[in-house]
Write a structure and sequence with these properties.
By secondary structure, the protein is α+β, with helices and mostly antiparallel strands. It is built from twelve helices and 13 strands.
Amino acid sequence: MTVENAAELGFDPTRLSRLSDTLKSQIDSGYIHGAAMRVSRRGKIVVDFLDGYAEQATGRRLDSDSVFVTLSACKPFTAILVLGLVERGLLRLHNPVADIIPEFGKVGKETITLFHLLTHTAGMMSGAPSLSPEILGNIEKLVEALGNMPAECLPGERVSYSMLVAHSIMAAMCLRVDGRGRRYSQMLNDEIFEPLGMKDTSLGMRDDLAPRLCPVRGAAGTPAEAVDPFIQLVEHVMLAPGAEMPAGGAITSIGDLHRFAEMLRRGGEIDGVRLISPAMIRLAARNWIGDKPNLVWDPALSTRGWSRFPDNIGLGFRVRGTGIGPGPFGVLNSPGTFGHMGGGSTGFWIDPEHDLSYALLTTGLLEETHSLERSAMLSDLVMAALVD
């Protein structure tokens, strides 16, 4: 682990070392296989951690250019693309999705809006639909199939995290208003990754990244039933040749994910390239669901003994808020902290009040509730070391 400029950036170096000690302990014990973490304040890197395995079964170690499957940590890539199109007047948050995708406007979905999709209040299914991998990984075919399926509830009635389908619908909207003949992976590359210099990031598998890829595997002690669905989805859909799954099928490096977070911390600009305005980021980083719980967590309430809790969802992001409960941020992060996490393994956040950017990519998937707790604990270790 490299800790640079800790004291001058307001950190207690001794307290900050608890972060590396914890990650090393988790790797040494087999709780996880490996980890890459980058933390910066005011644009200066203070933590650059890399240790453990890219592939434990073969003994291949993590390198600084290793790439990871993001899972849901890539959802904000699509959110930023969508919100940029809103800024340009090509999409509107309040208009029905059916204005852009007419075949979608039936069987209870007529009033679903872009706002509903971004806030997980559209009534779209939370799990994976029973469709073939060829359809799940094809945006237009999936949207066509979804058009014939009813919504699970009235739009805006409840919050239920859409693990897979909402972001494919948003991707189809982007393609229809500004695709210009491109595939969605190319559109993301042209509008987000290339301008930001995210050279190790793609939606779906890219040939040059394959040798550096960390395969998705469960960590020791994690029940197979908790991670096998993720592994199957990654291997048979997300990484299938030509597949595009905007909700989780991106590949990235720790440097690229941290750079994306830094762009958000800086108000939508980095190195003279602006993707989005500060005003739009402020809008996106607000809690838009009030104190509604996210029904996706209901199974955890009994198995973990948790009380129902609000989830604080913005426009494509999770928001810290002021409550006490499980989540991807620590209890010490400021209320305006926002970001996203990916199933059992990945995540990033920005704490605007403290000028902090944080990115984490790990190997060895954890069960989801334990991943939430791990994310919160690591975030608190960062914040507890901040003394200025």
